[in-house]
Amino acid sequence: MREPKRLLAGDATSFERQLLSAVKNERPSPELALSMQQGLGLSGAGASLAPTLAVKAGHALWLKLGAVAIAGGGLVATAAVLRPQVGTGVEAAAQITAPASRETAAVSTQPALEGSQPLEASATLREEIELLDAVRALVGRGERASALEALTRYQARFPRGALEREAGVLRRRLGETPRGGSSAASGLKAATGR
Amino acid sequence: MLAMEEAASQGTSVPHARLERVFAEQHDLVWRLLRRFGLAPAGAAEATRRVFVEASKELVGASRSEERSVLLRLALQLFQRSEALQDLAGAAPGRNSPRRGPLHVSLAQHVSLAQQPNGTEVMGLMDQVLTRMGRSPATAFILFELEGLSFEEIAGVMGVERETAVQILLRARDEFQRVAAELRKASRV
Prior knowledge:
The structure holds two protein chains of two kinds. By secondary structure, chain A is mainly α. Chain A contains ten helices and no strands. Chain A starts with 13 loop residues before the first helix and ends with a helix. Chain A is 63% helix and 0% strand. Chain B is an all-alpha fold. Chain B is 73% helix and 0% strand. In chain B, 51% of the residues are buried.
């Protein structure tokens, strides 16, 4: 089968072009790019965005952005941070900034990590993700007892884990009362955005 | 840092310099894909960071030409996991999704479309269109029409045959053109 011609290179209407062009070249702001880079513990050697911005932004901004990205945890409930925007129109435009400020508020209570800690935090987060993925797989297979056991292991390993709210949701799914009662309830609220 | 360096020295994680390069080359693309799935800019940034954390392991053994596909596949998986979480929490993304209801064109969008296009407003409309398509068609559409990937690469990212990817794209394009026409009609002042 031949490869179709891309709309922008073909016969898109002017309105279709307008829609496509609006999103085609969107890029993260330099501040967001820097926060990602910081969260990964990258120096920016492979990119040109860090040096200029670092000087411009100053140490305070680095810490602030670092807290957002690194705390990884605050973001937690993957669902909370990754919740798609379902608003439309002007409302959607407003939401473009709103979730970011919520996230900042959510993680600002956690101390910013310093120096070489970002990647350690990432490795820990990865371990948390893997443990909870295993729980989720067991839940999916209907292996409740094993899932509870794995969840207990997760909570013993990470008593104040970045994904504790996510763990609470899984525990609730298994018919158990999430540990920490009200905090789990707030975790669910955070996860659902309600 | 130490844990990652140790992992790199053991060959279970890519060397730091490679991750630096891949991040510089591809973070825009990953972030943009996640944005098109409806994430706010900061949420997409955090999700992108997570993709690269996982990529530090997944890229071991991948050639340079495979890096982009690996990242995009991880981004899709991460997003699917987040959707599953929302299901668990009883907040499936589709529950209040625009795809279930009528298209909504705000007054501001009427004005911006009728007079001078405003990037943010039109972007919001485009995201509505993508949301209504459904995940797979939107993925194929974004990767082909907006990011310029080949069908071979799209098929690899989506885990389907090339012909299937073409079919998904063609259906997505029909939907795009249909909804765009509907939106155009609705936005006329």
